[in-house]
């Protein structure tokens, strides 16, 4: 009898999604899909609004990484007000925005690794669900949990100081920012108020998190090296000299062998190189490189891709880690899904170093905040959000109202890789198995979780949290369905 | 020379300037009466009714009432507070007020009153009217979604010839306040800014400027509306 497994909802991800896995009469996995089942439509309701509202409006897509949308929209509107692309702002404005962005990357990555992913690492993907959660982490490793909370708090404090509040601030405006830091704010963030919330401590804790993961990798090398591993292309923004740059750069993609398939393209030209495919079973679109087509043009984005695409990291401690990471790849792009966590923690360290450097830069106290120039009718803003490359594209009428918006969100870019990851794990874990356990299904989720998907952002989306797995027979009848609150049952 | 008379405000006796606007006189005495359509320096209209108080036991709009000797004014009763709360709720339900994306958030008098009267959501059904954004003017945007038709702009903003640059259009429940194409031509940046500032909500916006006041420095970021009169 063929069967269809449904995991619904997928948990410990941001947003609502489900997985369906179809097995044939012999118990072989024949099809696996990650469905994104929520919809919102921000691209439509930003139309008709004044262009300067976009950075504030579109960030409501998400409460985890609103800063990414805030800054990407602001970068697009920089172009619209004639302030150029990325480097046209005043030093104060660019550095304040970068500080905001590094605070965002720092808190978001910390949230993902410690709160969402670490239960799988600490307890194993097949540990009982009642243990395998953030409260279990707190009970088992109090020091780690405390650090996680304080690291996230520090990132949020950086955002509050630069954007006005921790979630959904207004700091970035077309052509610049609306505030710089006061000396008191700078000193508090740099040195802390006698407590641990200071820039040096964040660097130290980031190094500690990396040591934690590398120790785990040493002990579980076979699992990590073999889990959900498949070749792919990788896409990221890089600085024109090849450095990792999370705020601004040119678009570069490499194939599974490391050969460049997109060679440092200006972000304003993205539409010449990218297309999006729509599939009937998901609200999330499938972007691909136009010249390679939908079958071969898909790619990964996010921390793993960034480590594979960049030539180096321009902060010394993260660069050391980068070199160790690259050594594991053996000269080729690293395709181990679970090493995304390592890459993510390298970026946590990089963000901590960048925040420390910026907080010592006098420009962040400056008062020259905004530039304007010749008004343009179209603007494109890209940056590397925590989950990967984020595209914002707007057209603005002569009346200053937005006429068109297109957002390609980081998680959308990872749509095909996540589907492949689900398929790989499902095939490895479920093929020919008589009894499907909760742990096996969680392994599917572990693969999805490595991408830290934000499904709300990806569909610009609405709905209840979180993910569902269904098992159907060859005639399409549902044989079993698994929700987190229910027990797997054959029908 | 102004003459001062005795009035009673909430059971306390004050001296107030005879003939002065009751709202302004109460403010001088440190008594807060909420307003929305009232704006210092322009003729009062009594349009929004939120300043309703009891004068000698009878409801009066305090913005259109003048101080007279021995008037006994009650500014706050449970009934008056409920009445004011209802006005705020009706205004929120009647338009499309989405504070999270509005650049007047933090400076908006309607939002501030909603906080003061603890209105997280209107108890009236939201109408979600279909309204447009008037953006043809080179310096101003009129967002009809947010307009509460208080007429502050009509009464308070005039061009160099003394002509109003805003005017009512349509009638009944279709009434809107438009920018006058003739009288608003060639207005200065300063007048455009005054138009934006006089609007109690975010219905009048200056083009090309937005969100330039950081969170934390907005009018109502730290203290509720009215605390400037009665902390």
The residue-averaged pLDDT of chain A reads: 88
Q: Which spans of chain B of ≥5 residues are poorly predicted at pLDDT below 50?
A: none
Portion in beta strands of chain A: 15-25%
Task: Characterize the overall form of chain B.
Answer: globular
Distance between the termini of chain A: 12 Å
Radius of gyration of chain B: 18 Å
CA distance, first residue to last residue of chain B: 31 Å
What summary fits the major beta sheet of chain A? 5 strands, mixed
Write the layout of secondary structure elements.
The complex is a heterodimer of chains A (491) and B (231).
Chain A: E1 3-8, E2 17-23, E3 29-36, H1 42-45, H2 54-57, H3 66-80, H4 91-123, H5 134-140, H6 142-163, E4 172-173, E5 176-177, H7 183-191, H8 199-219, H9 221-226, E6 233-238, E7 250-254, E8 260-265, E9 274-277, E10 286-289, H10 293-296, E11 299-300, H11 303-309, H12 316-329, H13 340-359, E12 378-385, E13 388-396, E14 402-408, H14 410-413, H15 415-430, H16 438-449, H17 455-458, E15 468-472, E16 478-482
Parallel strand pairs in A: 2-15, 6-11
Antiparallel strand pairs in A: 1-2, 1-15, 2-3, 4-5, 6-7, 7-8, 9-10, 12-13, 13-14, 15-16
Chain B: E1 4-9, E2 12-17, H1 22-28, E3 52-55, E4 58-61, E5 72-74, H2 78-94, H3 109-116, E6 133-134, E7 140-143, H4 152-156, E8 166-169, E9 176-179, H5 189-198, E10 204-206
Please characterize this protein's 3D structure.
Helix content of chain A is 41%, strand content 18%. Chain A has helices spanning 42-45, 54-57, 66-80, 91-123, 134-140, 142-163, 183-191, 199-219, 221-226, 293-296, 303-309, 316-329, 340-359, 410-413, 415-430, 438-449, 455-458; strands at 3-8, 17-23, 29-36, 172-173, 176-177, 233-238, 250-254, 260-265, 274-277, 286-289, 299-300, 378-385, 388-396, 402-408, 468-472, 478-482. Chain A has 17 helices and 16 strands. Chain B is α+β, with helices and mostly antiparallel strands and 231 residues long. Chain B starts with a strand and ends in a 25-residue tail after the last strand. Chain B has helices at 22-28, 78-94, 109-116, 152-156, 189-198, and strands spanning 4-9, 12-17, 52-55, 58-61, 72-74, 133-134, 140-143, 166-169, 176-179, 204-206. In chain B, 37% of the residues are buried. Helices cover 20% and strands 17% of the residues of chain B.
């Amino acid at each position: 009898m063929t069967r269809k497994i449904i995991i619904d909802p997928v948990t410990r991800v941001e947003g609502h999604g489900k997985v369906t896995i179809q097995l044939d009469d012999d118990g072989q996995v024949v099809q696996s899909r990650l469905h994104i089942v929520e919809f919102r439509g921000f691209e439509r309701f930003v139309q008709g609004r004044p262009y300067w509202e976009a950075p504030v409006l579109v960030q409501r897509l998400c409460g985890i990484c609103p800063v990414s949308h805030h800054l990407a929209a602001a970068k697009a509107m920089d172009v619209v007000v004639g302030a150029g692309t990325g480097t046209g702002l005043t030093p104060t404005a660019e550095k304040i925005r970068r500080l905001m962005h590094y605070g965002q990357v720092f808190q978001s990555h910390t949230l993902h690794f410690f709160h969402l992913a670490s239960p799988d690492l600490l307890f194993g993907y097949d540990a009982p669900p009642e243990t395998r959660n953030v409260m279990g982490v707190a009970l088992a490793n109090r020091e780690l949990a405390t650090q996680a909370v304080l690291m996230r708090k520090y990132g949020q404090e950086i955002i509050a100081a630069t954007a006005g509040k921790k979630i959904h601030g207004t700091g970035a405006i077309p052509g610049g920012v609306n505030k710089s830091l006061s000396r008191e704010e700078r000193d508090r963030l740099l040195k802390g108020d006698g407590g641990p919330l200071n820039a040096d401590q964040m660097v130290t804790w980031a190094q500690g998190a990396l040591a934690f993961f590398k120790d785990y990798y040493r002990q579980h090398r076979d699992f990590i090296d073999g889990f959900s591993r498949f070749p792919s292309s990788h896409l990221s923004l890089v600085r024109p000299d090849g450095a990792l740059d999370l705020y601004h750069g040119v678009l570069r993609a490499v194939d599974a062998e490391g050969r460049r398939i997109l060679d440092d393209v200006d972000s304003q030209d993205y539409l010449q190189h990218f297309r999006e495919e729509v599939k009937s079973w998901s609200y999330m679109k499938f972007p691909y490189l136009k010249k390679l087509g939908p079958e071969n043009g898909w790619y990964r984005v996010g921390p793993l891709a960034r480590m594979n695409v960049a030539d180096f990291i321009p902060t010394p401690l993260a660069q050391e880690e980068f070199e160790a990471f690259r050594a594991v790849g053996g000269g080729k792009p690293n395709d181990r899904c679970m090493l995304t966590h390592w890459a993510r923690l390298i970026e946590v360290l990089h963000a901590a170093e960048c925040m420390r450097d910026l907080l010592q830069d006098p420009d962040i106290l400056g008062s020259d905040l905004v530039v304007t120039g010749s008004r343009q009718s179209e603007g494109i803003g890209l940056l590397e959000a925590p989950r990967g490359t984020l595209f914002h594209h707007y057209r603005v009428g002569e009346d200053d109202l937005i006429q068109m918006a297109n957002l390609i969100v980081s998680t959308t870019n990872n749509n095909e890789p996540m589907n492949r990851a689900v398929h790989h794990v499902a095939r490895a874990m479920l093929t020919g198995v008589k009894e499907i356990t909760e742990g096996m299904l969680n392994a599917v989720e572990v693969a999805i979780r490595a991408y830290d998907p934000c499904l709300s952002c990806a569909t610009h989306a609405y709905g209840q949290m979180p993910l569902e797995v269904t098992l159907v027979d060859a005639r399409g009848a549902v044989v079993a369905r698994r929700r987190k609150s229910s027990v797997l049952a054959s029908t | 020379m102004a003459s001062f008379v005795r009035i009673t405000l909430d059971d306390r006796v004050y001296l107030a300037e005879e003939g002065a606007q009751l709202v302004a006189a109460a403010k001088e005495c440190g008594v807060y009466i909420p307003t929305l359509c009232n704006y210092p320096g322009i003729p009062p209209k009594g349009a929004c009714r939120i300043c309703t108080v009891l004068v000698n036991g009878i409801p009066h709009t305090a913005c259109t009432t003048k101080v007279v000797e021995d008037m006994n004014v009650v500014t706050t009763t449970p009934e008056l507070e409920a009445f004011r709360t209802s006005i705020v709720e009706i205004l929120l339900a009647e338009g499309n007020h989405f504070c999270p994306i509005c650049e007047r958030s933090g400076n908006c008098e309607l939002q501030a009153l909603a906080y003061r009267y603890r209105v997280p959501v209107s108890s009236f059904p939201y109408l979600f009217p279909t309204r447009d954004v008037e953006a043809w003017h080179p310096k101003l945007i009129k967002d009809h979604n947010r307009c509460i038709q208080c007429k502050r702009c009509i009464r308070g903003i005039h061009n160099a010839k003394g002509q109003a640059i805003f005017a009512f259009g349509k009638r009944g429940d279709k009434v809107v306040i438009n920018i006058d194409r003739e009288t608003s031509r060639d207005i200065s940046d300063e007048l455009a800014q005054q138009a934006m500032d006089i609007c109690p909500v975010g219905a009048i916006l200056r083009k090309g400027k937005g969100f330039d006041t950081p969170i934390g420095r907005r009018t109502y970021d730290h203290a509720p509306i009215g605390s400037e009169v009665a902390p």
